[in-house]
Write a structure and sequence with these properties.
There is one protein chain. This protein is of the alpha/beta class. The protein has one domain. The chain is 22% helix and 38% strand. The strands form two sheets. Strands 1-4-6-8-10-12-14-16-18 form a nine-stranded parallel beta sheet. Helix 3 crosses helix 7 and helix 8 packs across helix 9. The protein is globular and about 65 Å long.
């Protein structure tokens, strides 16, 4: 079955006809996430499917999810081959394969400083950060709730440093991934996460992370998809004072990729760095909705979102920053920069600042441009061909985000691979 992108204004009833049959194919709720599955399936039956009538879904088309009716298991061989083709784990890193079915910790010896959460801790922590960041009832989260059968729940103990590699490859149907991470005081965690979809299919990712005082999290997400595949991801973080979170996400190739980073600085005095790069071509849609809230003074945010759009690709960025009265002396900067390679590509960007505090340094901005003729002329005047000059300028544009990925994640997506993924080379 080949799914095509329909117009964003298509009717809710027509686009949701697949949902009830898909729910009927799910196994009966069971296992450690039984209550979560029950809740999610009930919510999907009660909530309307997101539509273009909602502001934050105005440009997002969910028609690719109709392929979830396909038989489970189709395309799994290609997905497994994609994951197996990766180089071995980096020295000192623990690689886990998340397939949505089996326990990723089965037969695994965890390194010093890394512990699996027990059922009581999971019950207390699961959903807490989603609620705190205001996305507990979002439709993509409920979709994950309905289908997720396994959970990766880990704690990094105080004053330890751990490196993780998380690899997932989707076959046909939906691959639901659920993660719960707890970083104790002065713990450090580097997470390199790779999401692959070599063919039609979908991945749903819901990650919750709680950072205690002075904890450090560096999360590098590389998502390489297929024009008939969809990615829906929520990354929810709670930060205690003096903690630091660095989230970098790179996506390319997906028919639909919607990522929603949600960050709450619980009492301020924390540092958040967000970096994003989307590459779209054909009729692909890349949609990012970020939300950062400061609930205390002296918090910091540095956010940069970049897009390369070719063909009839479309990118959407909506970045919301909330600075209430108690968040005095906040320092927040948000910038959206987009590169158009086609007169039929489209960029919709809307940085937002909501400031109630009166002693802050906050700025936002957005730019949309094409390759500059004077820069192309400069390179060509020094003997560089036109195509190579254009590729060099694209490389320079993307490098600002790619270079802050952890080394392992960067190796998974060199710029040449991104260009091949979307036919931009």
């Amino acid at each position: 079955m080949t799914a095509s992108l329909s117009a964003p204004g298509s009717s809710v009833m027509g686009r949701s006809a697949w949902l009830e049959p898909w729910l009927a194919t799910l196994p009966a709720p069971s296992g450690p996430l039984e209550a979560v599955q029950v809740r999610g399936r009930r919510a999907l039956r009660e909530q309307p499917l997101p539509s273009s009538r909602q502001e934050d879904w105005r440009f997002t088309d969910l028609s690719l999810l109709q392929q979830l009716q396909q038989a489970p298991g189709a395309g799994d061989a290609a997905a497994a081959a994609s994951a197996a083709a990766l180089p071995p784990p980096a020295p000192g890193a623990l690689r886990l394969v998340l397939d949505g079915r089996s326990d990723p910790l089965a037969g695994v010896t965890l390194p010093e400083g890394l512990q699996a959460l027990n059922p009581l801790e999971i019950g207390q922590g699961l959903g807490h950060t989603l609620a705190a960041t205001g996305c507990e009832q979002h439709w993509p989260v409920e979709l994950n709730h309905a289908a997720a059968g396994t959970l990766l729940a880990l704690r990094v103990t105080a004053r330890h440093s751990v490196r993780l590699e998380l690899v997932s490859a989707a076959g046909a149907g939906l691959l639901p991934l659920r993660l719960l991470l707890v970083l104790e005081e002065k713990a450090e965690l580097e997470v390199n996460q790779l999401l692959l979809a070599p063919g039609p299919g979908a991945i749903s990712l819901v990650l919750e992370a709680h950072l205690a005082r002075s904890a450090r999290l560096h999360h590098g997400l590389v998502a390489l998809g297929h024009p008939e595949a969809a990615l829906l991801g929520h990354l929810a973080l709670e930060q205690e004072p003096e903690s630091s979170a660095n989230l970098t996400a790179v996506s390319a190739g997906w028919g639909l990729a919607r990522l929603e980073p949600r960050v709450l600085q619980v009492d301020g005095q924390a540092v958040t760095t967000l970096r994003g790069l989307q590459v779209v071509d054909g009729r692909q849609i890349a949609d990012t909705h970020s939300h950062v809230r400061f609930n205390g003074p002296e918090g910091q945010l540095d956010q940069l979102h970049k897009v390369v759009a070719a063909g009839q690709g479309r990118s959407v960025f909506n970045g919301a920053v909330r600075v209430p009265r108690e968040a005095q002396r906040t320092n927040a900067a948000q910038l959206s920069r987009s590169l158009l390679l086609s007169d039929r590509a489209r960029i919709d960007t809307k940085p937002e600042l909501e400031i109630v505090a009166d002693d802050v340094k906050c700025a936002h901005g957005a730019t949309v441009s094409s390759l500059q003729t004077d820069e192309l002329f400069y390179l060509q005047s020094r003997g560089i061909g036109a195509d190579q000059a254009a590729q060099l300028l694209q490389r320079a544009f993307c490098e600002e985000v790619l270079r802050v990925l952890p080394a392992v994640a960067r190796a998974w997506c060199p710029l040449e691979a991104l260009q091949r993924q979307d036919g931009l080379a």
